[in-house]
Amino acid sequence: IAVEPFDIVVFGATGDLSQRKLLPALYERDKAGQVPPEARIIGTSRRPLSDDEFRDFARKAILEHIPTAEQSGTVLDDFLARLSYVPVDANAKKGWADLGKALKDGAERIRIFYLATSPDLFGEICGQLGQHGLVTERSRVVVEKPIGKDLESARELNDAIGRVFPEESTYRIDHYLGKETVQNLMALRFANALFEPLWNSSHIDHVQITVAESLGVEGRAGYYDGAGALRDMVQNHILQLLCLVAMEPPTSMEAASLSDEKLKVLKSLKPITDGMVNTATVRGQYRAGASSGGAVPGYLDELGNTTSHTETFVALKAEIENWRWANVPFYLRTGKRLAARMSEIVVTFRAIPHSVFDGSAGPISQNHLVIRLQPDEGVKLWLMIKDPGPGGMRLQHVPLDMSFAEAFNVRNPDAYERLVMDVVRGNQSLFMRRDVVEQAWAWADPIIEAWKASKEPPKPYTAGTWGPSAAIALIERDGRTWHEDE
Ligand code: BG6
Asked: Taking every annotated instance into account, which residue ranges of this chain make up the domain Glucose-6-phosphate dehydrogenase C-terminal (predicted)?
């Protein structure tokens, strides 16, 4: 569906996010015919590039990520023709007048400022945009996580943005919310009659959320070492997933209703304070090991610093203190350099109350619903059935299996394609509202504080494994195990 004409100004246009995600996403949307002919894409960064140099840069970035763009006929050239470039140095306060000129004749259009820069610059950029009169009635700002590094800095950042852009024009991206499979979680819960009656502590034993990566810190050690896995993945992506699993049915799919329900979940999260941090959390750091590509160095070697306590792995037992979820633990884990790239949500139902089968039928496993976010996106509902054949009543645990790739023969668009177009459409439902982000920090802060106060280093784990053994012990203490791929 075509959208209204828009101008998008990308700050940090020569950076990693712009190369890997934004330029390819805009190209794909243009190729799909969704970008109106008048739309303009203006790159800015400190680098002194001409329009043509930026177009060359963008061409390379797109071809690296979408090699088939080479054979796209004139599509790629037409896309590149929309691009222009203005050098802007936010700190040195240079280039704003030129940006104003580039945006001339577009005052009536939707105007998007995409801040793909370090968060340190968000406040300054917003302030300068305001001072230079570049913010129009129809302007929107898009900011990337991390929004701050704790509650206090998140508030400051939100205040700085809020002085220039009202909340309705502020789009805080959590790209997990743009993933097809994550949106499908809402369809699964709220477009089916089957699950919702069972979706509570009477029928659900526990929930696991795993976001495992096989890659290491990939040249981002500078940022990552100041953040760590809790800030980088749990405070945002994993808590957003937890909210979508745990929230009450919203009144509608409108942004306000969704954010209201997420906020309630976050407010119900039991604080993990000093006394509990050792039993409810495990932080790990990878040592040298192997990944699919061969031997890989440890985190400290990559960083060139032998004293860092930054965690590259976290496992947590979270509890939601409300009527629906009382006594249903949510086990969360994420890490870099794990055995595989695999993200999934596993909802395990309670055991049957009584078995009518005799011992020869074999063990009866609990039902579980596995929502695989990536790779091999799909949903599996594990059920007990009778082993076929005349050999008596033997039971087997087998999945009702819905693989998205098999069920739908369509390209799985990148999250950014959906999210950027939602900004143009003015649809905030897949973005994070200020209070939601801040509430997530309010829960994460005491964990970070307690870790900081403890002198204990993170638990080591070998690259290419599933993390430190303490993470296995965390869930086994409760008589449960992490879900393994079946
Ligand atoms: C980002 C984190 O938000 O998400 C990265 O900063 C992480 O550290 C990435 O690698 C994972 O995203 P995806 O889409 O590859 O699962």
From this structure: 186-483
Helices 151-162 & 122-131 angle (0-180, nearest 10): 10
Considering just the CA atoms, what is the radius of gyration of the chain in Å?
Answer: 24
> What pTM value is reported for the model?
0.96
Please enumerate, by residue number, every residue annotated as part of a binding site for substrate.
175, 179, 213, 232, 336
Cβ–Cβ < 8 Å for 113, 43: no
Give backbone dihedrals phi and psi of 72, rounded to 5 degrees, phi first.
Answer: -85, 10
Which atom of ligand 1 approaches the CA of 237 most closely?
3
Which residues line the pocket of ligand 1, CB cutoff 6 A? 213, 232
SS3 (DSSP) at 370 = strand
Ligand 1 centroid distance, CA of 357 (Å): 46
Strand partners, 84: 42
- Give the residue carrying structure tokens 């393994």: 484
Q: Which of 179, 231, 232 to mutate to test the pocket of ligand 1 (most atoms within 8 A of CB)?
A: 232
Of 432, 440, 418, give the one whose Cα is nearest residue 259: 432
ipTM exceeding cut-off 0.90 for this assembly = yes
Compute the distance from residue 223 Cα to the ligand 1 centre, in Å: 13
Give the largest CA-CA distance in the chain. 82
- The model's pLDDT over 209-245, given as tens digits with 9 standing for 90+, comes to 999 999 998 878 888 999 999 999 999 999 999 999 9
What pLDDT digit, counting tens, does each position of 118-159 carry? 889 999 999 999 999 999 999 999 999 989 999 999 999 999
108 CA distance to ligand 1 middle (Å):
35
Helix/strand/coil for 288: coil
- Judge whether 382 and 370 are in contact, CB under 8 Å: yes
Strands 40-45 and 6-11: parallel
Which helix (DSSP H) or strand (DSSP E) does residue 242 occupy? helix 239-246
Rounded to whole angstroms, the Cα distance separating 94 from 82 reads: 24
**Of the candidates 130, 197, 119, which has an alpha carbon nearest to the alpha carbon of residue 166?**
130
Torsion of CA 385, 388, 389, 393, to 10 degrees: -10
Distance CA 342, CA 433 (A): 28
Q: What is the DSSP track for 414-468?
A: -HHHHHHHHHHHT--TTB--HHHHHHHHHHHHHHHHHHHHS-PPPEEEETTBSS-
Rounded to whole angstroms, how far apart are CA atoms 236 and 178? 13
Which sequence positions are flagged as catalytic? 237
Are the beta carbons of 101 and 129 closer than 8 angstroms? Answer: no
Three-state SS for 135? coil
Measured over the CA atoms of residue 282, residue 285, residue 288 and residue 293, the dihedral's sign is: positive
Q: What is the pLDDT of residues 198-211, one digit of tens each?
A: 999 999 999 999 99
Give the model's pLDDT for residue 486: 66
Query: pLDDT averaged over the chain?
Result: 95
